[in-house]
Amino acid sequence: MPYIYRVRTHASMDRLEELIQERLQPGADKASIDRRIWDLFGETWAVMFTDLAGFSRQVVQFGVIHFLQIIFESQRLLVPCIEEHDGILLKTEGDSLLVIFRNPGRAVECAVAMQKKVEQHNLSRRDEEKILLCIGLGYGRVLRIGDEDVFGSEVNASSKLGEDIARAGEILVTEGLAEALPEDAKQRLTPLDVAVPGTRASFRLEWK
Known about the structure:
With 208 residues, this protein is α+β, with helices and mostly antiparallel strands.
């Protein structure tokens, strides 16, 4: 059983590593190998990255236990939103979440629900206990490696938007995500005057 479990959970990553090793060989037909990789792992997903604003400052000011408390509270609030909107939580890294959605509209609905939930939560919290949520969203062709990770330009762009550019309470989206939305939703998008690697344009979603 342990061997079967290992195969089931790591087979995709093992196969990718084999192909990358093949790609590294002298004289390898990289274009052909790349096509094989995309054939095996290429899928279209909406990608969400979340981050909590002001975290480094809070750790210095209030200590690591406070840091862990805010992470616990944020996950307690946000994970049910992800499940309700048919998202798949691939991984957590510190105060950040990586989530994928088949439907870009559901990804946007989830992001709005998340921001509304933390906004309501913060009404009864002291400033140092408030959850200050930043969200980045992308949509397009990615390499999905089982339930372990995703790679691609939309992944990079949504990560940059959610973790580096978005301020507390903001939902920022890539051009790929924006183009996948219905016209009424596009009316709520405001262009950003910032260049983000991985997307030709990015937008702020007005959700209030």
